[in-house]
Amino acid sequence: MAAIGELPGEMADLAAHLSASVPRAWLVGGCVRDALLGRPIQDVDVAVPDALAAAQGYAAATGGSYVLLHDAHPTAAVIDAGTGRRVDFCELRGSSIDDDLRQRDFTVDALAIALCPAVSPRVVDPTGGVADLRSGRLRMVSPEALDADPVRLLRAFRLAAQLHLCIDGATLAAIAHRADRIAEPSRERVREELVRLFSAERPYAEIDAMIESGVAAALLAPCPLSPDRARPALEAGDRLIGEARDHPACRRALQDLVVAERLLPWLRLAFLLGRRNRADIAVHRENLRTSRAELGALMAYTTPVQPAFGTPRRGAAQAWGLLSDGALGAMLVSAAWDEANAAGWQGMLLALCAEVYPTSRAAPLVSGSDLMDALDLYGPALGQVAAALRAAQLAGEIATAEGAMALARSVADRIG
């Protein structure tokens, strides 16, 4: 066992509440790991002999909300109404805490601290997790741990990226041997791990390892990844995002169209996938249980966009007309895979963010009723003229109602 010093405040409060009513309770898993690493502790996991009774008692003592998570494998959560902090109570597996920890996924998560305020906290570490943390190593508890829950095949890469650990050779070999089993867990759990992986800072080595292990191919079929191009494209995409954040107009567009919509992980996945046909991307609605918005964004981002042949603004306007809010992501992905045309993409991106995007939020220069009254337009003809006016407005070719009406007459004459 290893010393940890004093429990963080929220853990000490939990120990005080539980010690009187639950004589055998342990903090387990990620919260212990994060306390050792000095990382912020988000949610807390507690292993106890009777999880449901312990959770109900803790909820009554603290005024938190009790939520039953799983009845067959007793698990419950208590959520603090004021802070939103969540404490999960799980049934102790086996006859001792050592038995429980030996059934967990990775050694750095197979750690526990007894919740006993009268005793200086000590880490229970039957698999060498503390030494692995000190060595910067992510190691499976056993191959059977991967077989017991194949979502751990993906979790290994996510944890390594988030915690800046290196996956050891034996663990990588065991993952590669089981790569096809990533199809077995619920798609919701796979999606959560994937989103967290692509939310990590600089997950490049882990992406390489995921591709080399075969997990990426099994997960993202029918979209094979090119090992020699996928990582450079993701790195290039991240550089482009960084450059966008340094420019006020691009920072605003990126925030509005991607970050605020919680689509940044999907944009980074699109950097990895590159330009694809929509049918290959559509299967990920089921594969990854994406929401409609997430799938729509991923399909838009992987749509090939061409560099501008006219002015940068005209090229950006054409991309916006095709993809609307997804145009920025699509241009970033195309630019990441076509660094030879970096200057052209830079001009188009700036034009989209500084000119096309603000214009897209402005009202049309003339309304549909104006067009009907002035030109006696209805039905499909009205739609065609309105679309032509909108495209010209986005491209900066018209800026006044008079100019819009003149163009409307020209288009109406042309379509008869």
Structure explained in plain terms:
This protein is of the alpha+beta class and 416 residues long. It folds into 4 domains: 2-129, Beta Polymerase, domain 2, CATH 3.30.460; 136-221, Orthogonal Bundle (Hydrophobic Seed Protein), CATH 1.10.110.30; 224-360; 368-415, no CATH class. 57% of the residues lie in helices and 9% in strands. The protein has helices at 9-21, 30-37, 51-62, 97-101, 129-135, 143-148, 152-163, 169-177, 187-197, 204-213, 215-220, 227-245, 248-259, 264-273, 278-282, 284-287, 292-301, 312-323, 327-336, 342-360, 368-375, 379-394, 401-415, and strands spanning 2-3, 26-28, 44-48, 65-70, 75-79, 86-91, 112-114, 122-124, 137-138, 166-167. The protein has an 8-stranded mixed sheet. A hairpin with a 6-residue loop joins strand 5 and strand 6 (86-91). The termini are far apart. The model has no long low-confidence stretch (mean pLDDT 90).
